[in-house]
Design goal:
The structure holds 2 protein chains of 2 kinds. Chain A is mostly helical. Chain A is built from 9 helices and no strands. In chain A, helix 2 runs antiparallel to helix 8, helix 4 runs antiparallel to helix 5 and helix 5 runs antiparallel to helix 6. The chains are: A mainly alpha, B mainly alpha.
Chain lengths: ~240, ~55
């Protein structure tokens, strides 16, 4: 097997250039999908039989919740790659993921609270799904605090990567919490095996929104990654070209 | 105008729905600004360092 592509992905100058070139390819389709999905969500999707118009919070809540666990999984996977193969670029990817994931975990929690108040009669309940999502926020914040607290970059990379990898056990707990325990939170309508339990005209805007958010994550992560790579490779000669370009 | 008000009321759930949409939009925009700032600062920082290195030689 030819491993050249793998070695190239571990090379900071290659990654810097690649990230720079890829950003618009993710950013524009992301903006387009999210815009169309927003229109469909507010104007085309029919009101819910039980929840009426209020169910439209779904179109910002579910994509944010998807971001929170998807970004964490990407972060933990690249942290693991960084630990196992000692690839600095992988640590840089993990570090770029954390603030994005943390902010959307907060959005998922807050939009969930705004949905919970009219539907359950309370903003917050120490429910398995809500609690495990809150733990996810603390994992992100812990990861970022740990990185910020260690001066030596190599040490910060390794210590934070261990935290990220250990914390990944929380991801299946979040997903299955609504099945394992009695939860106020509804069971998944889309992210499950078999047919989604949703009308197509409600489902397609959601799927488009999820797709748009995922592309958006890729664009933002690749932007942050450029900054991470520049910050790490302080004295490398290729940087001169990167700055002057 | 009544049509707009009807839309904004979202069946009486507008007071929960619009803050949720607004918050999401704000975080989406902030992440873009935040990422751009990080790249710009990393570039400027590096440029300064390279100028100093050149001056030292």
């Amino acid at each position: 097997m030819d491993w050249k592509w793998f070695h190239r992905l571990a090379s900071p100058p290659y990654i810097y250039g690649l990230a720079q070139r890829l950003v618009p390819w993710f950013a524009w389709p992301a903006g387009f999908s999210m815009g169309v999905a927003l229109y469909l969500a507010l104007f085309v999707a029919p009101p819910d039989r039980v929840q009426g118009e209020g169910f439209r919070i779904l179109y910002v809540h579910a994509p944010s919740a998807w971001m929170s666990v998807m970004v964490y999984t990407v972060m933990a996977a690249s942290a693991a790659v960084g630990l196992i193969w000692r690839i600095k670029v992988a640590h840089a990817v993990a570090a770029s993921c954390a603030p994005i994931g943390a902010s959307f975990t907060a959005v998922a929690l807050l939009t969930g609270m705004l949905w919970g108040k009219p539907m359950w009669g309370t903003y917050w309940e120490w429910d398995p799904r809500l609690t495990s999502e809150l733990v996810l926020l603390f994992l992100y914040l812990g990861y970022m605090a740990l990185r910020a607290g260690i001066e030596d970059l190599g040490q910060a990379d390794r210590a934070s990567a261990v935290l990220a990898v250990v914390g990944v056990v929380n991801v299946p707990i979040i997903h299955f919490s609504v099945e394992w325990w009695n939860s106020l939170h509804q069971a998944p309508s889309v992210m499950k095996f078999g047919k989604p339990t949703m009308a197509p005209e409600m489902l397609y805007p959601l799927l488009l929104m999820l797709f748009g958010f995922t592309l958006y994550f890729a664009a933002i992560m690749l932007m942050r990654l450029q900054g991470e790579v520049l910050r790490r490779e302080r004295s490398a000669s290729w940087l001169r070209q990167a700055v002057e370009a | 105008m009544p049509a707009v008000m009807h839309f904004l009321s979202m069946g009486g759930r507008g007071q929960y729905l619009w803050p949720a949409y607004g918050l999401t939009l704000v975080v989406i925009v902030l992440n873009v600004i935040w990422a751009r700032t990080i790249v710009r600062e990393a570039r400027e920082d590096l440029r300064r360092r390279l100028i100093m290195e050149t001056a030292d030689r």
